[in-house]
Amino acid sequence: MERMSRTVNPINKVLFEMMERKKTNLCLAVDLTKSSEIIDIVDKMGPHVVIIKIHVDIIEDFDREFIEKMVTLKKKHDFLIFEDRKFADIGATVLKQYVGGIFRIQDWADLVTLHVITGTTTIEALMKGWTSSEPRGVLLIAQMSHKGSLLHEDGVKMAGQIAQQYPTFVSGFISQAKVSNDPGFIQFTPGVNIGSTGDGMGQQYVTPEEAVIKRNADIIIVGRGVLQAEDPVKMLLEFKTRAYSCYAMKNKEN
Length: 254
Ligand code: S5P
Prior knowledge:
Oligomer: single chain
Bound molecules: 6-sulfanyluridine-5'-phosphate
Helix content: 40-55%
CATH topology: TIM Barrel
Number of strands: 8
Distance between the termini: 12 Å
Order of helices and strands: HHEHEHEHHEHEHEEHEHH
Number of domains: 1
């Protein structure tokens, strides 16, 4: 619980406590396109994860009812909702994308992603859009997992510096390597799989152990490694045990 007391970020306080209580540091990426399929998976997997991540703009039959069902499941299973929007525009546009359109992301997404290349004015725009009474956070994309990404050391450096300026709103990072020495931020690492090293479209996978121990992940993002398994719940539980034991070892308090 040391890290919980070291963070000033309200979302991270919730997450540190939830990880310890639920004994999981999994974020499940539910990249499905039919709302009923998403709801079905989330109801099954919710007890074993701390976060459900979606790409709302790939859902073919999106409506408000889908959001209402997600929020009901969030309360039932106790997880946070992460909309992986990867904002990457000027502040005025990002603000409209965050609060408006048909998705009204700010209403329901506890966490969103922002490309670090856009700098600080976009963070301030998102903060302006945060009118919910609940905590909201943003994750800075410091590095990406796929082959040929143009973000390297510079992304890591920029993300670390920007996060320090907005510690109550920036929850942490999406990265393949350590970004910050500040224990109050949370690092998310995608590109994790047990039985595969890639998807033939550039994605590169490492094991949960490599992600947490070598790459410094606090939370691992897992998608197809679970969803495409023969027995998804069994596979999720394997990810859960393997990733959480590494996380617990790394965060052991003396
Ligand atoms: O660098 C990244 C950043 C993200 S957020 N690489 C990623 O793969 N992601 C997301 O993580 C991606 O959009 C997808 O939703 C998920 C990985 O899914 P998987 O099926 O490859 O595990």
